[in-house]
Design a protein that fits this description.
Pfam families: B3_4 (PF03483), B5 (PF03484), FDX-ACB (PF03147), tRNA_bind (PF01588), tRNA_synthFbeta (PF17759). Its cofactor is Mg(2+). This protein has 805 residues and is of the alpha+beta class. The protein has 6 domains: 48 residues, Phenylalanyl-tRNA Synthetase, Chain B, domain 1 (2-Layer Sandwich), CATH 3.30.56; 101 residues, Beta Barrel (OB fold (Dihydrolipoamide Acetyltransferase, E2P)); 205 residues, Phenylalanyl-tRNA Synthetase, Chain B, domain 3; 70 residues, 2-Layer Sandwich (Phenylalanyl-tRNA Synthetase, Chain B, domain 1); 202 residues, BirA Bifunctional Protein, domain 2; 88 residues, Alpha-Beta Plaits (2-Layer Sandwich). Helix 5 runs antiparallel to helix 8 and helix 18 crosses helix 19. The chain is elongated, with a radius of gyration of 40 Å. The N and C termini lie far apart (90 Å).
Length: 805
């Protein structure tokens, strides 16, 4: 919302610098984006009077003009604008002047003819092209006849104004109008605003109700109020310059005297209005209803739009002519041929207007105000003010009576609050009189009984309903900076992380110590990617209004995002990448209202984790390397139940022969392995290994109590064993058996050799292990170790059929 400080002076006596006023608004009411000074950076731009205008001798579109700029001699200026003519008052940029976009104007020659300056269009003075009136969009701007040659032009164009650009929050829709802003500033500076009055003259011999029939078929909640007025004998023409200035300084484009009047009242009262060409209405009939599926309408922007059943539409004999609260229809547009105006003033449901604006991508000044709310008590006043203004500007007459389709009994809101409550919440010691004075400045009628206030809130402040709202008003006007500052009371406690937070933080450290780099990817992805790599069956959660087709669905896995990150790096020639991510996935079942958020941790590695250097070759990552990272991580959690890895082909996105599910006891907590070659191709990555773990489940599992003991000071004894054994027997089976039979002093079992080939029978393999024995409290004797070792050899032979070599 752009607020003209010159327009504000019609309401209040504010001899305050615009920057100071903007800061006060931001501290007390709403945010301010900045102060706009249209003439900033421009100089030596004056009024000129074109004395003569002759065709250029060497051009079919240029003109050579003699222009009076208030100096002793006129300036010769070459101009190509089609509307330049002798006798016109124009905008002149003198030699060595600065105009919009930091452009300097110098003396020059145009096709051999000297030109001392430039005749300017509005966009050359920094005006947005969208704000330039259509009648001068292709030429220079023509100033009024009373403009004095040689005077700076900025005052004639409203460029000497200072405009406060406010970012109005949804709860303060009342400040989307000059009246609302004036009321707010009057309260801040303790003034009585000079509010506009309506001087409406009706033709009592001509009754609008005999010519205009309005019916509201929509629900009362959707359209609580709908009224119209009829103005006849209008003449459509450009608005006077003062009105055009106020319109374009507010950020809108002047159109004609009728449309500009409705926009002026919109800015003044915050009430959207719409003008229809009355002669284009069928038999003067207007009805309001919800659109029907499949209906079409052409809006003022020339777009044919298919209407939705949620759209409110204004119809004439059931034919849509306007998208209610959003944009009018082309069929009833006010044109130069229009002679009678049917003027609409209404209140529409904010949700309905928001949906229509979003669905049709039509966000207008009107829809913005309906979405944030308008003053229901001012609708008819604004309608009358606009009718009076249109009649004055167009020479028309206002017919007698307002035609009412639906009316609303608008009553002020009454809120009761006590002084003790206000002081308790704000921590202040305000007196009864001080609070009553704040309500008086806000122009809220108040009665005081002891320390209890009964406050009548006018309809222009529809955001105030409960005592807490009044407390906020007191705090704002008393001044947030004046509220006392106190330290919190109570017993201080030592802050620390809870178990979940600590595990998450430790997990990140462990992954980084393993050589992985943290990645953060989007929680939203495509439906196809969201379903991939899911650890458990789940429905997907889709957004109703996604930002893009790539961000439609909440993820069920972290791996897809990591693969996108790998693809991004690979496309930029980074082929050795190791990433991990800790984040949430979103599981949902049909009976759930909202998805369940589960903490996961995942990793993805492609290429080599060993940096190539002199004497050191890159080693491509394999299954065992990423499995080792997962094992080390799970070991750090000190889980009470055993961890096991079971080969699986249940994950279609994973390689069926190089993937394992991870179990803790009988509970599935994740998977690890290589992604399927087809998956790698789809993501445009090379051979990649990934894992994903359900961190929420891991945190919930029972843990062993971690105990620490000093390193033994006594020496260890080792024994080696080599054996021939069937190919079907796994290393894990052998290690488990050795640990089971190895005795109390067996400290570790290490596989140091695997051999298959010549001298080894078919179906067999040769394995060699080192067994390390150590006593924490004494030196082991050889006989004791030998005895324990022999038990291991016997078990290997008897239970696994091993042949000891």
């Amino acid at each position: 919302m752009r607020i003209s400080t010159q327009w504000l002076k019609d309401y209040l006596k504010l001899d305050i610098p615009a920057d100071e006023l903007a800061e006060k608004i931001e501290r007390t009411a709403v945010e301010v984006d900045g102060v706009i000074r249209p003439d900033e950076g421009q100089k030596k731009v004056v009024v000129g009077h074109v004395l003569t205008c002759e065709p250029h001798p060497d051009s079919d579109h240029l003109h050579v003009c003699q222009v009076d700029v208030g100096e002793d001699e006129p300036l010769q200026i070459v101009c190509g604008a089609p509307n330049v003519a002798a006798g016109e008052k124009v905008v002149v940029a003198l030699p060595n002047s600065w105009i919009g976009n930091h452009t300097k104007i110098k003396k020059s020659k145009m096709r051999g003819v000297k030109s001392a300056g430039m005749l300017c269009a509005l966009d050359e003075l920094g005006f947005d092209e969208k704000l330039v009136p259509k009648e001068v969009a292709d030429g220079i701007f023509i100033l009024p006849d009373d403009a004095v040659p040689g005077e700076p032009v900025f005052g004639y164009l409203g460029m000497d104004d200072e405009i406060i650009d406010m970012s109005v929050t949804p709860n303060r829709g009342d400040m989307l109008s000059m009246n609302g802003t004036a009321h707010e500033l009057a309260a801040i500076y303790d003034q009585t605003p000079n509010m506009p009055t309506v001087d409406l003259h009706e033709d009592e011999q001509d009754d609008a109700t005999d010519q205009l029939e309005v019916r509201v078929d929509a629900d009362e909640h959707d359209v609580p109020m709908y009224k119209m007025r009829l103005i006849k004998n209008v003449t459509i023409k450009p608005s006077p310059l003062w009105l055009q200035i106020r319109i374009w300084n507010a950020g809108m484009r002047p159109i004609n005297n009728v449309v500009d009047a409705t926009n002026y009242i919109l800015m003044q009262y915050g009430q959207p209005l719409h003008a229809f060409d009355f002669d284009q209405l069928k038999n003067g009939h207007v009805n309001v209803r919800l659109a029907k599926a499949g209906e079409h309408m052409t809006t003022l922007d020339g777009e044919d739009r298919e209407l939705l059943p949620t759209d409110l539409v204004i119809c004439s004999e059931d034919t849509p002519i306007c998208l209610a609260g959003t944009m009018g229809g082309l069929d009833t547009e006010v044109t130069d041929a229009t002679t009678s105006i049917a003027l609409e003033g209404a209140v529409f449901d904010a949700v309905k207007i928001r949906k229509t604006a979003h669905n049709h991508d039509l966000h207008s000044e009107a829809s913005m105000r309906y979405e944030r709310g308008i003053d229901h008590g001012m609708t008819e006043t604004a309608l009358n003010a606009a009718a009076a203004m249109i009649a004055e500007l167009s020479g028309g007459t206002v017919t007698n009576n307002v035609v009412i389709g639906r009316d609303e009994d608008v009553q002020p809101t009454t809120v009761t609050i006590t002084l003790s409550k206000i002081n308790h919440v704000l921590g202040t010691t305000l007196s009864v009189e001080a609070v009553a004075d704040i309500f008086k400045r806000l122009d809220f009628e108040t009665t005081v009984a002891g320390e209890t206030y009964t406050v009548t809130v006018p309809s222009r402040r529809w955001d105030i309903h409960i005592p807490a709202d009044l407390i906020e008003e007191v705090a704002r006007l008393y001044g947030y900076d004046n509220l006392p500052s106190t330290l919190p009371t109570g017993q201080p406690t030592i802050g620390k992380l809870n178990e979940t937070q600590q595990v998450i933080r430790d997990s990140r450290k462990l992954m980084e110590s393993a050589g992985l780099t943290q990645a953060i990817s989007y929680s939203l992805t495509t439906e196809e990617k969201a379903k991939a790599f899911a650890l458990h069956p789940s429905e997907v959660t889709k957004l109703d209004f996604p930002m893009s087709s790539e961000r439609t669905t909440l993820r069920l896995s972290l791996v897809s995002g990591l693969l996108d990150d790998l693809a991004y790096n690979n496309a930029r020639k980074e082929h050795n990448v190791a990433l991990y991510e800790e984040g949430r996935v979103f599981y949902s079942q049909p009976e759930q209202v909202r998805p369940k958020e589960i903490e996961h941790i995942a990793g993805a590695i492609t290429g080599s984790m060993t940096k190539k250097s002199w004497g050191v070759a890159e080693q491509p990552v394999d299954f065992y390397q990423i499995k080792g990272i997962v094992e080390g991580y799970l070991k750090s959690l000190a889980l009470d139940d055993a961890v096991s890895y079971v080969a699986t082909s249940d994950h279609p996105e994973m390689h069926p022969g190089r993937t394992a599910n991870i179990f803790v006891g009988d509970q599935l907590v994740g998977f690890v392995g290589e992604i399927h070659p087809n998956t790698a191709k789809a993501y445009k990555v090379r051979e990649t290994y990934v894992f994903e773990l359900d961190l929420t489940a891991l945190i919930a599992l029972p843990k062993e109590r971690q105990q620490y003991q000093p390193i033994s000071k006594f020496p260890s004894i080792t024994r080696d064993v080599a054996m021939l054994i069937d190919d079907t027997v796994t290393n894990a089976t052998i290690v488990d058996l050795i640990n089971d039979k190895g005795g109390a002093h067996l400290q570790s079992v290490e596989l140091f050799d695997v051999y298959t080939g010549s001298h080894v029978p078919a179906g067999k393999k040769s394995l060699a292990y080192t067994l390390t024995y150590r006593d924490q409290n004494a030196t082991l004797v050889d006989d004791e170790v030998t005895q324990a070792f022999n038990k291991v050899l016997a078990a290997l032979t008897d239970e696994l059929g091993a042949e000891i070599r």
